[in-house]
Sequence to fold (535 residues):
Amino acid sequence: MKDNRKKVIMYTTLGIIALGIVALTITYAYWRLTREQTKHNEISTGCFNIEFTGENDITLDKAYPMKPEELENFLSSATPYHFTIENTCDDLATATINLESLNSGVEKQLNDEYIDAILYEIDYHNNLNSVKQLIASIYNDENKVLEDSLHAYKLYNFTLQKGEAKSFNLQLYMDSNTPMETANMNASWKGKITLSAEYKEEKFANLGGKKVPVIETGDGLYEVKHDDLEELGSEWNKTEYRYAGANPNNYVEFNNEIWRIIGLVNVKVGNSVEQRLKIVRTDGVKEQKTFGNYAWDRPSGYTNNWTTSKLKDMLNGIYYESSTGECYTGNSGRTASENTCDFNVGTELPKGLDDTTREMIDKEVIWNIGGSSTVNGVTVKMFYERERGTSTGNDNTYPNEWSSETDVGEKYNGIGLIYPSDYGYATNGGSIGRETCFAQYLYNWDNKSGNYKSECGGTDWLKPTSGYLWTQSPNSSYSGSAFYVDSSGSVNSYDVYNAFGVWAVGYLKSSVKITSNPNPEQDYGTVDNPFVLSM
Fold:
């Protein structure tokens, strides 16, 4: 780690001037608002590039405290203040954008609380900070960039990889609650945008021999720590790496198809705990055939014991062997019926695993199949714990692990489903952040009013685009129910005889490596330039 952190400081001026018309009595007031860029911006290091639009780029005439119903039209028609920030250093940069208020130098100073700011990131059309009224709750005074500023308001904190650039639009306007009174007439407000940045050595993870950057925001590979899971024993106190975001570059060529890497996760292999690459065959990748909808178990005599489930039999039987046989299919959310599925030469279904692919699957991995008695009040971390716990069926008579030793009579044991925690750890949290999503119950991730639907589930690549998706975890309070993820972003449980979507999951042997890219000039891990595996 480098000892000397480099700091970048930038500022640009924005001014808001309030003008009024006074008659015998105050019957109406309006404001003229201008925002100007200064000619000179100070940057203390040459490897952090900042570009601005031209001077005096925003001028709003006859501006006034807008009512909520007027705001939408204003935001769509007004010219925003635009700037681009690029990290030209070799290290990861963590940056903070502040809006700092200054003494306007006139007799009447318009209070900060009457100013609202909206910051957008151009590439994603995201409103990064909602509407931030400049009030005490978002003071950031301990991180002031300008010594003479009255207050510093933190608008956004983000990271930039080497060579990465982000473009932003900023819009300022007067809050609708600004009193139309004499004290606010002919008043002025002045402020500056400031940017401060610190550089730190970029962190990497070793994924199958491939050096992949570990990030803190955006789409990509994240570090996940489980150091606080003491009840699981010290053997689990390791760091995992998981891909998160709406569409991270985690595509991998597997079985002559495009699969995706969930991450490098902890698994039991015999009596030891090791880390394995975990991959999944999702829907919606180019024009690949989808599995369709299958029951977790048969409609009659069903249980949520994964070791005896019909879906387990299908995945590790006719799909694993690329053959034809029994399966239970149906319309999404409806009771399934017994059918024959052809994973060999069938025209409707994808082809099963080939010989090379089967060699890459680690059949010695012990799968955790513990469950949760409820979905209400259960966070990602709690699901992770319960998946590795001892609670299974409603009488806890089912095994809580699945391996070639416990699954007597089965030749193959290597294909399963995602866990609820896999889904949970695959969000980047959007504008509210991963930690906010991790603190919220997965059941509530479809809560639109709480922003979880758009920010938690909406930035999660493991969320199905339609219908429901089975997970491998049982509802331990009811022997006929298992958990699923629905397209709204929520995790819930339902009867196992119903047909939901299925995504095949497998762990790769430690001898499987990610080789060099077939197109090294392109970004690796994309759908058009996926990771390539070799033994």
Remarks:
- The chain has seven helices and 32 strands.
- The chain has two domains: 7-200, 287-512.
